[in-house]
Amino acid sequence: MDLVFRGRAMMPDGVRTVAVGVQAGRIALVADADAPLVTTTEVLLADDEVLLPGVVDTHVHVNEPGRTEWEGFASATAAAAAGGVTTIIDMPLNSIPPTVDRAALEVKRARAGAVARVDVGFWGGAIPSNLGRLRDLHDAGVFGFKAFLAPSGVDEFPHLSVDELERALAEVASFDGLLIVHAEDPVVLEAHPGRGGRSYPAFVSTRPPEAEAVAVQRVIDGVRRTGARAHILHVSSSAVLPLLARAKADGLRITAETCPHYLTISEEEVPEGGTQFKCCPPIRDAANRDLLWAALLDGTLDCVVTDHSPSTVALKTAGGGDFDAAWGGIAGLQVGFAATWTEAERRGIPLSRVVSWMTASTADLAGLTAKGRLREGADADLVVFAPDETFRVDAASLKHKNPVTAYDGRLLRGVARDTYLRGRPTGGAPHGTLLSRTE
Ligand code: ZN
Q: Are 64 and 108 in contact (CB under 8 A)?
């Protein structure tokens, strides 16, 4: 073996004390803790550590090229590795060009290839102008297609109309692809215009639960008609949960995610002018947050992803705390796993559930069969995690590019002491690889 870990490990069936043998970047063997495995390098986990499969974060905006001053592959993947994340899948927008054709995908792959500290895959985009031509990008290896139903925030990534959503679902169904949807309804949003200002509740009132519910129902109806497979991105409002539960009970191929900021922060905690907390859909009240947790526990929601969507400090604080003026997006890639575990532990939810939502479930969403589980044959993407060690988040010391985050100052539980990608520590020369969808 190239490397052997001995100690407690989060296996698919729970925590066991084992020996994990790594060979050629893969988990070659899981054996009894005292099994006599021959190796040059042995890692003995401390009593307060548990070996986890690396986090698979399927919702990350890297923004390179085009808005590399917001974030980039070098900084984002360094932040990921520091937080125990070993795979990211990059969103198609906020970079220029957006990932809406094969040429744009190749541009991104070229940028990421040399600098990635973790494995990187890509979502494609479905916009009005590339409908009818999605198959080419699918064949080029994207994991699925992202679409917006309301304005995305950037001009080069327009949203789909009601008719275009239906066409996109039908097209994706024709090659058994996946459509992932930012589900807010533009008509509802237009009926709740913002008047600006530093009041967070006033901002939340411009993105009401009804906007999410109307849009999610539209996706569900389209899935029912077309047979497509769809995934609802960043569920923020509990209003969509009964809709999702019914769709799943009906056997529709629909899944959904939520994010650490919706699970760990509440509207009541956001200060006046606290635009580092601005995202769309917004962080809602504490009662809503409880319902999101319940939906994860009962399977209505499938997974937890960060939706890491940073910008420059200037854009994030534009308008001096005016919620209409500031960029909407929360930077949480490095601390999302710890934040989710911190809140789960407070609620009496075991680490195994958090790990499952952020590793196996997200790997399954993307069809990454070699990721997300600590088992023989999987990639040796492993994290030495200290679940009870606490730390205080300092935005300036995080590894993403711009020192702004909604988690600044929070006391979190759970430290990724060492992260291994394909059996090698992520701290040396970058050795992340580019991932493509496999059938
Ligand atoms: Zn996003």
A: yes
Q: pLDDT of 30-72, one tens digit each?
A: 999 999 999 999 999 999 999 999 999 999 999 999 999 999 9
Main-chain phi, psi angles of 131, to 5 degrees: -60, 140
Cα(61) to ligand 1 centroid in Å equals: 6
- For residue 255, what pLDDT is reported? 98
Determine contact, residues 179/160, Cβ cutoff 8 Å: no
pTM higher than 0.90 for the full model? yes
* Distance between Cα 187 and ligand 1 center (Å): 21
How many angstroms separate the alpha carbon of residue 87 from the centre of ligand 1? 16
Rounded to the nearest angstrom, the distance between the alpha carbon of 325 and the centre of ligand 1 is 18
Residue 123 CA to residue 142 CA, distance in Å, equals 5
Predicted confidence at residue 78, as pLDDT, reads 98
Distance from the alpha carbon of residue 172 to the mean position of ligand 1, in angstroms: 20
195 has a pLDDT exceeding 90 = no
What is the 125 CA–ligand 1 centroid distance (Å)? 12
DSSP 167-234: HHHHHHHHTT-EEEEE---HHHHHTS----SS-HHHHHTTS-HHHHHHHHHHHHHHHHHH--EEEE--
Ordered by where they begin, the domains of the chain are 3-44 (no CATH), 54-366+390-409 (3.20.20.140)
Q: What angle do CA 149, 187, 163 make, to 5 degrees?
A: 50
Give yes or no for residue 140 having a pLDDT over 70. Answer: yes
Which secondary structure element, helix H or strand E, spans residue 423, and what is its range? none
What is the CA(94)–ligand 1 centre distance, in A?
10
| pLDDT per position as a tens digit, 315-365 | 999 999 999 999 999 999 999 999 999 999 999 999 999 999 999 999 999
| SS3 label, residue 402 | coil
pLDDT band with cut points at 50, 70 and 90 for residue 439: low
Distance in Å, CA 235 to ligand 1 centroid = 11
Task: Give 438's pLDDT tier (boundaries 50, 70, 90).
Answer: confident
What's the rounded Cα separation, in Å, for the pair 263 and 279?
Answer: 14
Other beta carbons within 10 angstroms of residue 205's beta carbon come to: 13
